[in-house]
Write a structure and sequence with these properties.
about 280 residues; mainly alpha; 3 domains; two-stranded antiparallel ribbon; 10 helices; 4 strands; about 5% strand
């Protein structure tokens, strides 16, 4: 067995004790170091396990993020959330899975939600868009106020679709610009004897089922407008457009008609003014 000589100075004196005054077996020192390393690893693992096991409670999330709280700039309406379908079905962290500790306060995107964890429906809305941005699930279904589609307060209920879709599709939801207004005048010719159907241009999901909503070839409700107006692929069936707009690229015919209307109106206004001036000059 080998030994290690330990040199030390006794506190308070200038006498150094060295040589074989105190001897420790080398194997004992190795064992002590191993124990220290093991203890340190245990502390680290225990601390990490405790941090991983901790999760914010729903009440803690509410305390920080409820309307009026000064603890966060991101606020939600607790009353709205309590009436949603998620209130009794999911905790905050079941949706906000990236929120694990206080680091989420400074981590960009930590509040992102992946709805596919519970919903098989994949978001393909606007997948073919060339604008570089696409709507997320909450763009239509709201962030914390999701209701069943049959609830009149739901953002995807037929009565609310005009407001829901307007944020991205203002023209199609009734906000027609001046240049497109005259070409948008239409004659509604079909009968409306089936009171289970909502015959209105603001009933977006009556036509835009399938590809127009979730990006899939399947209907979302019992509305049958699409059978005559548009295919599930989003292709127009009728001669003409339901949502006409003066767009030289997509609807050149409407653009041409709008231009003709503007010329006609200009001639009419100029002619009327000239006629009035002539009449006035004749009287004088």
């Amino acid at each position: 067995m080998s030994f290690v000589n330990c040199n030390f100075i006794y506190p308070g004196s200038n006498v150094e004790y060295q040589g074989s005054s105190i001897q420790y077996p080398a194997t004992s020192i190795v064992m002590i170091m191993r124990q220290i390393v093991r203890f340190g690893l245990f502390v680290l693992i225990f601390t990490a396990a405790q941090a991983a096991a901790y999760a914010y409670t729903t009440q803690e999330c509410i305390d920080c993020h409820q309307t009026g709280s000064t603890d966060s700039k991101l606020h939600i309406s607790i009353d709205e959330f309590n009436t949603s379908v998620h209130a009794e079905e999911a905790d905050c962290q079941e949706c906000h899975t990236l929120v694990e500790d206080e680091a989420h306060q400074t981590t960009l995107g930590s509040g992102a939600v992946d709805c596919s964890g519970c919903h098989e429906q994949e978001n393909r809305h606007g997948k073919g868009s060339t604008s570089g941005t696409r709507p997320q699930c909450y763009s239509c279904h709201t962030r914390h106020g999701m209701l069943t589609k049959d609830d009149p307060r739901s953002s995807v209920h037929p009565k609310q679709l005009k407001e829901t879709c307007r944020s991205c599709h203002p023209r199609e939801s009734g906000q027609t610009d001046y240049f497109s207004w005259l070409p948008s005048l239409q004659i509604a010719s079909h009968s409306k004897q089936d009171f289970s159907q909502v015959y209105a241009r603001t009933n977006c999901l009556g036509c835009h089922q399938g590809m127009g909503a979730h990006g899939e070839h399947e209907t979302l409700n019992d509305q049958t407008c699409f059978t005559c107006h548009v295919t599930l692929d989003g292709q127009n069936i009728l001669l003409g457009y339901i949502h006409s707009k003066a767009d030289a690229g997509r609807q050149p015919g409407v653009m041409a008609a709008a231009s003709i209307y503007q010329v006609f109106l200009g001639v009419l206004i100029f002619g009327g003014f000239a006629f009035f001036i002539r009449k006035l000059s004749t009287k004088t």
